[in-house]
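Table 4 source record.
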Amino acid sequence: MSIKVESLTKVYDTQIAVNGISFELKKGEIVGFLGPNGAGKSTTMKMITGYLPPTSGKATVCGFDVQERPMDVRKRVGYLPEANPLYFEMYVREYLEFTAGIHKLGKGSKERIEEMISLTGLSKEAHKKIGTLSKGYKQRVGLAQAMLHDPEVLILDEPTSGLDPNQIIEIRDLIKNIGSQKTVLLSTHIMQEVQAMCSRVIIINNGQIVADDSIEHLKTANTKKDILVVVFESEVEPTLLKKLTKVETSENLAPNQWQFSTNDPEGLRREIMQWSLEHRIHISSLQAQTQSLEDVFRALTNNNKAVVS
């Protein structure tokens, strides 16, 4: 496993920020790490990368224990923290040369720097001071330094935070391209980004893992009832719909549009069709509705009370 977390716990005074969580990531996976503010995402990432010691439990990266072999871990991890600490007075290429020196890349460092500048789209900005760059280009510099030493694992905390739509798409494509050969743990609050990049998500709430599954399975497994959305050709009197015995709940979305929840979707389909014939009210469309990732996230985290991130 590229990343293995076992019963990882972090306690601040009397507050449990991360509470005995466990998960594994394989090479080639891009996994979304989701949770409300203060759920423990950043704390977990900092423990995996060795920036914070755990109170108990264990994290290994590429087979190396983070606490026992921290330098071996750091050689194999590229980390982009949410704050993206950069030296604003340095020029882009100068900063990457400095980073290459820290990683002791040696003779091949110049070629690697130019490769990262090209890969992250920094060619036109490489001669500028980092402090003069836009937020999007600063994020690119952060990604370039995270990938400079060709790590096997990337830990990215809110990599698209504060970017405009065009910049988000560019960074997303970059992460997807590099993710096929590496392991990526990606934290973000943007559900569209998760769905565009990740096949699997881990959701943490109050310091505990509340879900770890593929996006598609989460969207179906957490549906307590099936939803049918019906559009009629004319407005419907609500009292007439009370004759639909297989409806659990109903909601009038628009004058001619209704949403029904049911435990028997096929039975309700047949009942609605029969009902429409009896009342001579034509149906424009009748569709099953799949809940979104946002719906799943809200359902699993709506009782969040944590304050540490």
